[in-house]
Amino acid sequence: MKKVLLALVISAATFGTASAQVEIGLKVSPSVTSLRAASPNGDKLKDESPKLSLGGGLIVDYFFGQNYAFSTGLELVGKGGKLSYYDDNSQRRYEQKLGLQYLQVPLTVKLFTNDVAEDTKVYFQLGAAVGGVIGARVDGDKYYTSPVSGNRTKATKHVIIPDANLRLGAGIERQLGQSTRFLAGISYHRGLLNIDKYFEKNLGIRDAELKNSEFALDLGIKF
């Protein structure tokens, strides 16, 4: 009986230690997003300007050392930008503003310094994120009518569903209470996949390429 009680005590202590290694929080991330547009035949497809977007979600930091953590969570983010394409038949250039919503899971490592000021640490973040499109708009509408062909297409059909990006960031975390921390940082997200599903198929722009880019300001609180 004593051995059983001892085992339970050790198990409870181990569980408490493991629980203490996990920090959960929420964040909001206003960002500037753009589309890296390109085509081999000159400037038939090119990016024009970025757009302001907003994202946020859940933070889960699992510490496997005092200053090292595997950081994941669940994020709802806005991406997209303004681009333009050239039509040979009409000899005109047309602009298109593409807004995308993604649900994604970050898979990153956070490295923390020791305190650089009272209750304040600097962190560096490196990794990736994978996710998929859950919503899209072209020029603010869910459907797009081509000025070239007159064909009407659903905005979500303009891009492939999956996306993946590399993430690099840095910031500070400040202790506000016994288990409460405030964080502020910046991050860069570079899309890896060609998400185009419209310009090559519908407009005949051979080897058209669209990739996401994002600069974000990350503000959050961990409990």
Question: What is the strand and helix layout of this fold?
Answer:
Blueprint: H1 2-20, E1 22-38, E2 45-49, E3 51-65, E4 68-87, E5 92-112, E6 120-138, E7 143-145, E8 152-154, E9 162-175, E10 181-191, H2 199-203, E11 209-222
Antiparallel strand pairs: 1-3, 1-11, 2-4, 3-4, 4-5, 5-6, 6-9, 7-8, 9-10, 10-11
Describe the structure in brief:
This protein has 223 residues and is mainly β. The chain contains 2 helices and 11 strands, in the order H-E-E-E-E-E-E-E-E-E-E-H-E.
Give structural notes.
The chain is mainly β. Residues 1-19 have low confidence and may be disordered. It has helices at 2-20, 199-203, and strands at 22-38, 45-49, 51-65, 68-87, 92-112, 120-138, 143-145, 152-154, 162-175, 181-191, 209-222.
Strand order of the largest sheet: 1-3-4-5-6-9-10-11
Helix and strand content put the structural class at mainly beta
In total, how many beta strands? 11
Q: How much strand?
A: over 45%
User: Biggest sheet: strands, sense, closure?
Assistant: 8 strands, antiparallel, barrel
Please give the share of residues in helix: 10-25%
Q: Which overall shape is indicated by the principal axes computed on the Cα atoms? A: elongated
Low-confidence stretches: 1-19
